[in-house]
């Protein structure tokens, strides 16, 4: 925190032009391939089945792993009998805490340390202690997955149970107040919000709850690990290729260059495709048996040992004077974060940037429960925080008989409300204007329970979503340019399905002044220059910045090679641009030299540069925040309480859109995840045993096609002048605000205010 504060102060003093990226990216508004509708370049590989995922790589001598999970939440293993399992057909190895190699703990995920990737600081099969229900207590390797599963069922374990902390309510008196939530200070206060709340003419003061949410990517976590001597190749489904390679090298005490992590395709990753126990288990087992090992988590295992979002209990209090200006905003609450976890589920973070209020108070408390550590899940914090905040805004608007959009815009801040730093770009009002018009907001009747069709009560609602801009500091890319005017751009980027190679190819084509067909983007391999993890919606801009830096370096090297015989002789890198297969003078476009001519004169076939991006100082100089306006049209059965969504519409103020098709798809997917959060997703946790009761998709309900309505996705398209290419990231924002828009529409339809997710029909009867 202190570090962030000082960086902000120092950077705030720097003149604009001294900042890397201080002057806007020259490619903003000047691009050609960027912004063009283009299908996924690897789409044909996927739809024909040619793409090989981590669990599909064919290897000789492969053996398959199965896991055993603890059925108790706390205690220690008392007796352990593996003889029957070892004697079962096809069994190659049974690994328990007795036979597992001794390993250092995994370094935890951290925003500021890109080589740390672990979700949990707990030891992995290092001792007989049980720390949560679902913890892995044994691994079985066999010739087939079926043999491994069967043998795992034969392991006989008894436990000495100890009292476990598994009750949310009971843990509150011992709640911890962390100093920070990610990179922000946790507790913030301006003025006396409680006093302002008591004195204001209008106020809402309510508790909102959200249940645990579990990761449910279509592809469960999977690794295939193969050692050759002291060299390791890991086929992985990961959002963090380079950090995983670095962590494995450290844990298994081998050189970084002797680890290769390959992850060309990932079947969905929403924060959980990082580094989990299964990496360590599979790699250790493969080393012991000197055979390749495949470990695919069952759907149940994803619930037991990967987990997801913490449950939250949030208080939001809002007060306003008659004109609508907020006099108080309080957002506090409880979530679970065991001390061995890394994700603070920062649900108050969005509230700090969204509204101007005279008096504010923010703060989060953590409960230490003996549970699978909660983890990052699409818009950690904002996804559930926006449900509470934006429900409360709607409640206040109703109380004041004011249009909820109007109330929001009257409190739209000009600068970041806490830091006072200027926003780089912010057009929430424009998003609402576009959204209200396209949606037909004017048709809404503000009085609840007034529109009806037969048994169906009709309602409309809206809510704001938000997510910060993140550009990650580490990372490099390599560009190889050949004489025939082709470029290959490479780094260890990740693609969880959003189209990384597609948009980066579009960008590289524009940046290098080449047609799309002349550019290739290599990724998914830790032997390539290291990319930061795909997280925080920051991968795209992080790589764009590195490509831009490499392109600048390439320009300099080409000029140097061009020499005195070139029409560009005497010009410096800042005086030319890469365009149409060569370098062109900015001042005099008639002065140009093609890549072919430059490399031919120099007697070269190709030129290669590798470069990293400058530090993301723009994040400190400006408040960089994306926002969205969400609208929902729905009906509720007056007979059964069943909610049916008719339409969703989202307008996103997220900077430049790199590819309308892949972006719309990603934004629509995020809104669907928000719909699931609103209506059905809920981890059912038995507080007596600490056991998740619905560990599987049969009982943990994500939206199916029939639950999903027409979803209209739009954007303001206004570039952010402070970010590479004017883009600000779209991976996470779309889940935010959706649940509140739905809950607000339910109120409009029924007159019943639901403050507890999911919005199931029993709560409406
Ligand atoms: Mo995200 S929750 O940073 O994948």
Question: How would you describe this protein?
Answer:
With 765 residues, the chain is an alpha+beta fold. It folds into 3 domains: 63-163 and 218-268 and 273-306, Aldehyde Oxidoreductase, domain 3 (Alpha-Beta Complex); 180-213 and 308-470 and 620-764, Aldehyde oxidase/xanthine dehydrogenase, molybdopterin binding domain (Aldehyde Oxidoreductase, domain 4, 2-Layer Sandwich), CATH 3.30.365.10; 472-615, Aldehyde oxidase/xanthine dehydrogenase, molybdopterin binding domain (Aldehyde Oxidoreductase, domain 4, 2-Layer Sandwich), CATH 3.30.365. Helices cover 26% and strands 25% of the residues. The longest helix has 24 residues, at 539-562. The model has no long low-confidence stretch (mean pLDDT 95). Residues 239, 270-271, 376-378, 380, 535-536, 732 line the site of dioxothiomolybdenum(VI) ion.
Using the alpha-carbon principal axes, give the shape: globular
Number of helices: 19
Helical content (DSSP H or I, runs of 4+) = 25-40%
Q: Which spans have pLDDT < 50 for at least 5 consecutive residues? A: none
Helices and strands: which structural class? alpha+beta
Q: What do the pLDDT scores average to?
A: 95
GO molecular function: iron ion binding; oxidoreductase activity
Domain Aldehyde oxidase/xanthine dehydrogenase a/b hammerhead: 48-163
Keywords: Molybdenum, Oxidoreductase
Protein name: Xanthine dehydrogenase YagR molybdenum-binding subunit
């Amino acid at each position: 925190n202190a570090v962030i504060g000082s960086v902000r102060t120092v950077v705030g003093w720097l003149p604009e032009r001294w900042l890397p990226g201080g002057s806007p990216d020259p490619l903003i508004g000047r691009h050609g391939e960027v912004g063009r509708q283009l299908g996924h370049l690897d789409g044909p590989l996927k739809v024909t089945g040619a793409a090989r995922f981590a669990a599909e790589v064919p290897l000789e001598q492969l053996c398959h792993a199965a896991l055993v999970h603890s059925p108790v939440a706390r205690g220690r293993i008392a007796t352990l009998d593996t003889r029957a399992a070892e004697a079962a057909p096809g069994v190659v190895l049974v690994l328990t805490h007795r036979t597992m190699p001794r390993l250092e703990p995994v370094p935890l995920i951290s925003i500021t340390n890109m080589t740390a990737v672990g979700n949990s600081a707990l030891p992995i099969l290092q001792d007989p202690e049980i720390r949560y229900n679902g913890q892995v207590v044994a691994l079985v390797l066999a010739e087939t997955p079926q043999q491994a599963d069967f043998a795992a069922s034969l392991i006989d374990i008894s436990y000495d149970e100890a009292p476990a902390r598994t009750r949310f309510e009971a843990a509150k008196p011992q709640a911890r107040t962390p100093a920070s939530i990610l990179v922000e200070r946790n507790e913030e206060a301006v003025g006396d919000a409680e006093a302002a709340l008591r004195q204001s003419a209008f106020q809402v003061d309510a508790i909102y709850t959200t249940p645990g949410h579990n990761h449910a990517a279509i592809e469960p976590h999977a690794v295939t690990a193969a050692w050759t001597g002291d060299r390791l190749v890991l086929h992985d489904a990961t959002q963090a290729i380079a950090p995983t390679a670095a962590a494995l090298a450290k844990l298994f005490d081998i050189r970084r260059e002797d680890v290769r992590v390959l992850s060309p395709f990932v079947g969905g990753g929403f924060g959980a495709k990082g580094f989990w126990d299964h990496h360590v288990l599979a790699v250790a087992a493969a080393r012991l048996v000197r055979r390749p090992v495949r470990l695919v988590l069952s759907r149940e295992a994803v619930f037991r040992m990967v987990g997801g979002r913490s449950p939250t209990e949030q208080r939001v209090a809002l007060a306003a004077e008659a004109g609508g200006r907020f006099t108080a905003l309080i957002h506090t609450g409880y979530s679970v974060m065991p001390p061995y976890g890394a994700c603070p589920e920062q649900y108050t973070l969005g509230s700090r940037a969204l509204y101007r209020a005279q008096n504010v108070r923010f703060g989060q408390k953590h409960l230490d429960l003996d549970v699978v550590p909660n983890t990052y899940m699409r818009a950690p914090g904002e996804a559930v925080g926006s449900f509470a905040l934006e429900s409360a805004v709607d409640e206040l608007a109703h109380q004041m008989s004011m249009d909820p959009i109007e109330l929001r815009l009257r409190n739209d801040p000009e600068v970041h409300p806490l830091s006072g730093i200027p926003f780089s770009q912010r057009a929430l009002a424009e998003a609402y204007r576009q959204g209200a018009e396209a949606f037909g907001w004017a048709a809404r009747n503000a009085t609840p329970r007034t529109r009806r069709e037969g048994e169906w009560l009709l309602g409309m609602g809206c809510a704001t979503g938000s997510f910060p801009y993140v550009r990650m500091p580490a990372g490099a890319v390599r560009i190889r340019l050949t004489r025939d005017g082709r470029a290959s751009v490479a780094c260890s980027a990740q693609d969880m399905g959003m189209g990384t190679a597609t948009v980066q190819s579009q960008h590289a084509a524009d940046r290098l002044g080449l047609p799309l067909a002349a550019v290739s983007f290599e990724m998914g391999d830790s032997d390539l220059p290291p990319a930061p993890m795909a997280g925080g919606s920051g991968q795209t801009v992080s790589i764009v910045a590195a490509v831009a830096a490499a392109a600048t370096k390439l320009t300099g090297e080409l000029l140097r090679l061009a020499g005195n015989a070139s029409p560009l002789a005497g010009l410096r890198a800042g005086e030319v641009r890469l365009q149409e297969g060569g370098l062109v003078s900015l001042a005099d476009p008639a002065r140009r030299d093609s890549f072919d001519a430059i490399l031919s004169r120099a007697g070269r076939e190709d030129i290669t540069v590798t470069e990293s991006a400058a530090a993301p100082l723009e994040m400190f100089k400006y408040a960089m925040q994306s926002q969205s306006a969400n609208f929902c049209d729905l009906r509720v059965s007056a007979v059964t309480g069943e909610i049916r969504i008719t339409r969703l519409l989202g307008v996103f103020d997220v900077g430049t859109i790199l590819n309308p098709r892949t972006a719309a798809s990603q934004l629509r997917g995020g809104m669907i995840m928000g719909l699931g959060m609103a209506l059905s997703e809920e981890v059912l946790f038995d507080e007596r045993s600490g056991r998740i009761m619905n560990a599987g998709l049969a009982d943990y309900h994500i939206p199916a096609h029939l639950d999903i309505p027409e979803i209209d996705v739009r954007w303001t398209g206004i570039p952010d002048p402070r970010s590479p290419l004017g883009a600000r990231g779209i991976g996470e924002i779309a889940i935010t605000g959706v649940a509140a828009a739905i809950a607000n529409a339910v109120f409009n339809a029924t007159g019943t205010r639901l403050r507890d997710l999911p919005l199931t029909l029993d709560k409406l009867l």
